[in-house]
Amino acid sequence: MSTELERQQPIEVSEGDLEALLGDRALGRDDHLNAPGFVIRPDDVQDVLTDLRDEAGFDHLSCLTAQQYSDRYESIYHLKKYADPTQEVSVVVPTSTDDPVSQSAEPVFRTADWHEREAFDLVGIDYEGHPDPRRILLPETWQGHPLSKGYDQEKPQIVTLSEHANPIQPDHHDEESDTMFLNIGPHHPATHGVLHVKTVLDGETVVDVDPDIGYLHRCEEQMCQQSTYRHQIMPYPDRWDYVSAGLLNEWAYARAAEDMADIDVPEYAQIIRTMGAELCRIASHMLALGTFALDVYGDFTAVFQYAFRDREVVQDILEDLTGQRLMFNYFRLGGVAWDLPEPRDEFIAKTRDFLDELPAKVDEYNDMITSNEIFQIRCHNTGVLEPEDVKDYGCTGPVARGSGVDYDLRRDDPYGYYENLEWDVITEDGCDNYARVLVRMQEVEESAKIIEQCLDLLEDWPEDDREVQANVPRTLKPDADTEVYRAVEGAKGELGIYIRSDGTDKPGRFKIRSPCFHNLSALEVMSEGEYIPDLVASLGSLDIVLGEVDR
């Protein structure tokens, strides 16, 4: 496990340094609540991003937000540092409405590939020099861009007959090639949902992987843009990563909206939030562990059912706390919906019983999984993701920490009550499928430490000071053109939200930064040169949920 001393010390860069670095390439300022913003020309994107990465240390393209105003299109590149995510900068690239073309950032940050495809697909901005300018969520035959102004929602969508042609009909065998096209999914147990992986084999070796997403696209961003800040948006986040991380998702929205509206959350409510979030993290990692064992060596009767047994105990605790079993809707702007369930002593005792039994259960998993010879053969040195590729693809969470990238927003960009508690960030330097499993298993134990400390605090908290919500106005209307990007450490990695206010009680733009979206984009580099079984293991080790990938 890496220690704080081993982490690379970030370069401290002031706004003056950034202004000097960009020089006359900065046409103006467009500061956001979380970061200084610089407006640049569409043909300077690669030069500016390269200098910010190489000269100023901004090596993490966290998110790309595209949107349309009445007089322009706009791409916002949200840049951070893996060594210090509190250092942020926004690069704003406006383009005209009649010719929305901007230079692609893909040669600088590989993760911009999927980002820019999504921006084109939903908003309609073209990125010059992009290596693969296809739609990513909608079919290639789709007419229009759903998040652009003037989009006709009633326009019929026609799929041409060519779309129904046999995709491998032109394939033929010749003496110089042994390649074969193979469809994996979208309905396949190894894809953990409706994911279609287009795979090209040379003999038995994977030479190309193209994840085809969008089968579960539910217009979450558009729905949030049509909902009020105070009451209507909060039920939606539970449905992004719908199987495990409800409270973590809710916290991502709450953090962004609370920063925008300058809402201070009571300390007591922060402790409850932290405890609930870590219970969700344990539930998520249990699901990841059980399904991964099923993927890798077909263990349904033991590991899969054991993991779900323990996950069910966590779900029972969360149901007691929130009243819901999956879609919790427990967070509120300014705090949480209500205090711990009564009788408090029983709830605390039930949670402590789970924590007391957890170490023996983790030992049991290690006996059944990490020491299993088949598991080791399938996972050691497969799905290798080098640290430089982690950063290039914008990977976060256990996927990044399994490659030795010591990045965790709970510690590096503190929120909630984490900075007041004792716990460790887990990293492994194996860079393979095995290392990612080890990280998740050890993170379960760290989450248990956090929950234990939260219970101690909640148990002794004075009854007269148990404030669960701040005094929040009934209607929130942030000043027009207020912009913020905030993120939390979800179970899968950095889950971020960008919000732009238009002065009403609903967001002018609402953008979700999905960790699963970024992590899945790295599947190609992880799988190249390996076998189909290794591809299945690599996909499972990413722990994706398609509801969050597609949003």
Automatic annotation (TrEMBL):
<dbReference type="InterPro" id="IPR020396">
    <property type="entry name" value="NADH_UbQ_OxRdtase_CS"/>
</dbReference>
<dbReference type="GO" id="GO:0016651">
    <property type="term" value="F:oxidoreductase activity, acting on NAD(P)H"/>
</dbReference>
<protein>
    <submittedName>
        <fullName>NADH-quinone oxidoreductase subunit D</fullName>
        <ecNumber>1.6.5.11</ecNumber>
    </submittedName>
</protein>
<keyword id="KW-0472">Membrane</keyword>
<feature type="domain" description="NADH:ubiquinone oxidoreductase 30kDa subunit">
    <location>
        <begin position="39"/>
        <end position="156"/>
    </location>
</feature>
<dbReference type="InterPro" id="IPR029014">
    <property type="entry name" value="NiFe-Hase_large"/>
</dbReference>
<feature type="domain" description="NADH-quinone oxidoreductase subunit D">
    <location>
        <begin position="301"/>
        <end position="551"/>
    </location>
</feature>
<dbReference type="GO" id="GO:0051287">
    <property type="term" value="F:NAD binding"/>
</dbReference>
<dbReference type="Pfam" id="PF00329">
    <property type="entry name" value="Complex1_30kDa"/>
</dbReference>
<dbReference type="Pfam" id="PF00346">
    <property type="entry name" value="Complex1_49kDa"/>
</dbReference>
<dbReference type="GO" id="GO:0048038">
    <property type="term" value="F:quinone binding"/>
</dbReference>
<dbReference type="GO" id="GO:0005886">
    <property type="term" value="C:plasma membrane"/>
</dbReference>
<dbReference type="InterPro" id="IPR022885">
    <property type="entry name" value="NDH1_su_D/H"/>
</dbReference>
<dbReference type="InterPro" id="IPR037232">
    <property type="entry name" value="NADH_quin_OxRdtase_su_C/D-like"/>
</dbReference>
<dbReference type="InterPro" id="IPR001268">
    <property type="entry name" value="NADH_UbQ_OxRdtase_30kDa_su"/>
</dbReference>
<comment type="subunit">
    <text>NDH-1 is composed of 13 different subunits. Subunits NuoB, CD, E, F, and G constitute the peripheral sector of the complex.</text>
</comment>
<dbReference type="GO" id="GO:0008137">
    <property type="term" value="F:NADH dehydrogenase (ubiquinone) activity"/>
</dbReference>
<keyword id="KW-0560">Oxidoreductase</keyword>
<keyword id="KW-1003">Cell membrane</keyword>
<dbReference type="InterPro" id="IPR001135">
    <property type="entry name" value="NADH_Q_OxRdtase_suD"/>
</dbReference>
<keyword id="KW-0813">Transport</keyword>
<keyword id="KW-0520">NAD</keyword>
<keyword id="KW-0511">Multifunctional enzyme</keyword>
<comment type="similarity">
    <text>In the C-terminal section; belongs to the complex I 49 kDa subunit family.</text>
</comment>
